[in-house]
Amino acid sequence: MSGAHRETVQKQIHQDWANREYIEVITASIKRITDFLNSFDMSCRSRLAVLNEKLTILERRIDYLEACVTQGETLT
């Protein structure tokens, strides 16, 4: 193998490793972003479920109060 050919092969190998490292960094970053988004999604869904329960309770109370007011109006 000539010196120039060996040097070319070494440059290609170094470039290949640099590309692989870059791809690894990008892949790790995408995984972190995905993990964050999944965690955020679960947190939002949980909070919205709690909020929905609270709204349902308030709606039932309003229905009850409206019923009480309506009965009071019919009794007078």
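That was protein one. Protein two is written in the same sequence-then-structure order:
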Amino acid sequence: MYHSSNPPPDSTYIRPAHRGKHKIFIGMAPGVGKTYRMLEEGHRLRQEGIDVVLGLLETHNRQETAQRAEGLEVVPRQQINCSDIILSEMDTDAVLARQPQLVLIDELAHTNVPGSQREKRYQDVEVVLAAGIDVYSTVNIQHLESLNDLVARITGVVVRERVPDRLLEEADQVVVIDVTPETLEERLKDGKIYALEKVDQSLQNFFQRRNLIALRELALREVADNIEEDALEQASNGTKADAPFCSIHERVLVCVSTYPNAIQLIRRGARIAGYMHAPFYCLFVDDPDRFLTKAESLHIETCERLCKEFGGEFIRVTNYDKVKAIAQIAKSYYITQIVIGESQRSLWRLMLRGSLTHQLLKSLKNIDIHIIATEKRT
């Protein structure tokens, strides 16, 4: 990821024409330790011979954070006159002129003061990355654009500073800095996050236990989703053909037939998917040698309509071998749970050929199969 040699000091040095790597430290709330962890990694890489600088650090008067930054080279801030008040922002041009291998930039969602070259700090980060410089940055989960309404419902706070979701999607690495809500409350009460006079107000508002629990779940789920999306993309591109894909989230497949119990199976499968917050699919396998009657065709159409009403995707394939078809779909859609009805075959046919359930269990690995009992037909 890095080169061990420092760039020569003369101005003729030209960086390789490649985009820098971006590593984001994300957490559920202020005070979880994102900036501290970023600084720790900066020190470690500096000791390994990497040319590291601090582009922008916000300590918020946290003594531990300020102490951890000691020993790292700091790029001086840019001074900006805003309505006769001198304010400071990261000097992106100075970072580019310095040309380090890695720059540490705090608070990705920050809005720059009026008069700055760019409106948002994440836009400065993108300029630095485009110049081939690696960036470590920090952000809290509530600043993600797509989560803005949800965070407002959870906490009652409308977050004004937001970043596009694509920043996480495009990042080379996203690290969750996770602590328990109890630990965060202790840090708050000890004055390690805000001044002591602000502690009670914070505990009664944003830092309420229920808020922290919900935000923590959001942070962990967001990164898990990104990991799975990357794994799915790599699997579809064949970049990890030697290693089987392991699904992080559940995916439910209901196998329907022309039997009347298919409606019951769809409802049960939809409930299972709902409990698991899982994508939901229904599969019907056509027999090439058998034409459906009008009643059977209408029945399958009803199954498809019901599946879509539950927010599912209806899949219809043609195959002589039902077990093979189910197995192929399960693999293609990364299914983790399959719902089927108990066999309608006679005991004699089961002894000769075996049940669909038994054949599926032999064909599929790491997939749970739910066999739903139905009323016996007379």
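Residues 22-237 form a domain with the Rossmann fold fold (CATH 3.40.50.300). Keep this in mind for the problem set.
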